Predict the 3D structure of the following.
Amino acid sequence: MMKGKNQRRIAWLGIFLIAGLLGCGKKGEQAAEDPYRFPEEKHLRNIKMLTNGGENAEAYFSFNEQMLIYQATVGDLKCDQIFIMNIDGSNKRMVSTGKGRTTCAYFLPGDSTFLYASTHLAGEDCPPPPDRSKGYVWKLYDSFDIFLARVSDGQIIKRLTDSPAYDAEATVSPLGDKIVFTSTRDGDPEIYVMDLDGSNQTRLTFEKGYDGGAFFSWDGKKIVFRASRPKTAEELEDYEALVKEDLYRPTTLEIFVMDADGKNMKQVTNLNAASFAPFFHPDNKRIIFSTNAFSENGRNFDLYIINIDGTGLERVTYNSTFDGFPMFTRDGKYLVFASNRFNKQRGETNIFIAEWVD
């Protein structure tokens, strides 16, 4: 999920920043009556741009679907903070502390509270970017912990994780009973679940490789996530050397599903590319996700949808730079996503909402 101030997304958002470097979308090729849609995008209609400028990503609906919570670097901010806006893009306001680096915010049932990961307890400044002498890598900051805060004023109510390792990427089950998140507390990036108050933290994944970016299915019975599985001796050696320094090289990520208790894990994609940001369609039979698998230069990420058994892969977006972080409404009528399409300046990423045509 990544240049200068763009490096703030290195903690699991580096992929889309690579795409952001490519600049504007194919302006002039969009449908005239739907100015943010490309003609091939038959699943999308009436696309609206909700932010306009800066770098905005990971927008997720509130439980009543009247608000979106997202992370952004705008104005004088040096790295991501958490914002809330109405679904029409109005009433944008920052709800995080303004200190440290933040990521991965999500509403809790009732929409009066939200969770997010932050490094602010380790320092008010943005933590430094990773050592790029090791190539293109993500930094899993061990200063990230997950916090519960009030929507009304952003006041932190409770610290949900307190490990000396990376705790982030938290999302909430649509049933409103569990939180799923990623942690390196056991030496490898793995997926865990906990209750809404932070209790009963339980590890679900145990295979060597990065596991993260998890979301529950709408019925709460399954979890979809992205994962790497180093296979060769060289890949394994590189992976283990980087993990010791809280680093990860996101060259190949595939989409996996498992039961909500971690059982019956299955690989959905086999694209040998950087596939991430999976989210269940409300029918719980399909998964939408972002991948660069069909990009000639590896830098173009588009949205695709696939059956949970790995069949029926279909392209959704046709932007020449980046589309990612999709989320459906509960009825499947709308899709929110982040994109570099039609940005005014190179590297800008904005939030869009569209009607979904099935």
Notes: The chain has one domain: 4-356.
